[in-house]
Amino acid sequence: MVDPHRAFFDKLNWFEEKDCEQLDAELAWARSECPVVRTEFDGGMYVITRYDDLRTVAEHPEVFSSAMPGVIPVPVGLPPLDLDPPLHRDFRAFLNKYFSRAFLSTYRTVMEHLVDELVDGFIDRGEVEFVSEFAIPFSAGSLARIVLDDKNEERVARAIEAVTVVAVTRDPASYGPVQAIARELLAERTEGGDHRDDFLGGIARATVEDGRPLTETEMLGVVTVLILGGLDTTRGAISYVGRFLAEQPGVEERMRRPEWKRRDLDEFLRFTSTVSVMGRVLTQDTELLGCPMKAGDRLAVHWRSGNRDESKFERPDELVFDRVKNPHAAFGFGIHRCLGQHFARLQLEIAFDRLLARVTNFRVKPGTVVREAVGTANRSPEELYLQFDRVPGTDLARPTAAREGALQV
């Protein structure tokens, strides 16, 4: 008799809605019974499901290479995501400065102003489609204004559309429009004699491997990574938290306490795991938990599964805000720990502190069904109609720290 769990993984399609709906339950079975489970998707790969094994893979890039960072082949270079040491170290050396919390915090008022403008646009209606009217424009606006310094709204709209197609289909051809936008941004900066000390300027001036400048392909790849990550993963996390506000009793009350950012935010990140799975490829024959693998075999490292590992987290399928420790894998482990982690945290903090200063009592609009994303990135809401009330006394006194002139940072 065929085991139904193994049959599920044999035929798993990361981009089929029915498979995505069932995947969390099947990963729980795998963690218990077959923690390195084989799937025949796209020619075959091993899915790594337990927390400790994920850490082992992440901390040994000499064996588990990042040269194939997706569960399907990616037609473009995506440095530093697809690099191994020592070149990976060179790329992170010049990128880390622009994604430190200290550097990004200088743009706090820009992000505050953006939230204020978005809330202005829907507060009088008492309802909002939370993804398209808040999560997407805030994450896109933050990326455009702070990381890319791009004031071209038409291009930002194209970027949102292009990234959405990549996230939903993972069609190799879908990366072309994203790279075209990256090429436009770099051309404007490198051909215009602009010497600002920001992310794009840093790429243009960076050197790797004992002093050589980045190739055009490498520069395009870095910008492409930031567009993809900045527009998709943070949007997913914001959308997820918006749903919790509407559906989970007590969440709004907790998020009105200043300390929510120090502990509750990590539990949101663990539970949502908006970067759910990444790819690795074996550089040599090895064995993991008694499962023999050969050089060239592919792995799917499932961060979301690790974040729900029962041996590491009590009640892993629930939001538990009072965990004594929360060593979640939402940003990965090892040398590829997410470059944008501080940016993501800062956006989440500002988005909800500013939003909750003016609105309260979130609930899903009656008669609507929350539509969830399909694919490898997350199960976050793609469409989320919410109703809310105003916070009394705030109509004429909305936060003003980022009013006129704040965008001139």
Key features?
alpha+beta, globular, 45% helix, 409 residues, disordered C terminus, 14 strands, five-stranded mixed β-sheet, three-stranded antiparallel β-sheet, 15 helices
Provide a descriptive summary of the structure in words.
It is a single chain. With 409 residues, this protein is α+β, with helices and mostly antiparallel strands. The strands form 5 sheets. The chain has a 5-stranded mixed β-sheet. Strands 4-14-11 form a 3-stranded antiparallel β-sheet. A two-stranded antiparallel sheet has the order 5-6. A hairpin with a 2-residue loop joins strand 8 (286-288) and strand 9. Residues 401-409 have low confidence and may be disordered. The chain has helices at residues 4-10, 17-33, 51-58, 87-95, 101-105, 108-122, 130-147, 153-169, 175-190, 199-205, 216-247, 251-255, 264-272, 303-306, 341-356, and strands spanning 36-39, 45-48, 64-65, 127-129, 207-208, 212-213, 277-282, 286-288, 291-293, 298-302, 359-364, 371-372, 381-383, 385-390. Helix 6 crosses helix 15 and helix 8 runs antiparallel to helix 9. The longest helix has 32 residues, at 216-247. The protein contains 15 helices and 14 strands. 45% of the residues lie in helices and 12% in strands. The termini are far apart.
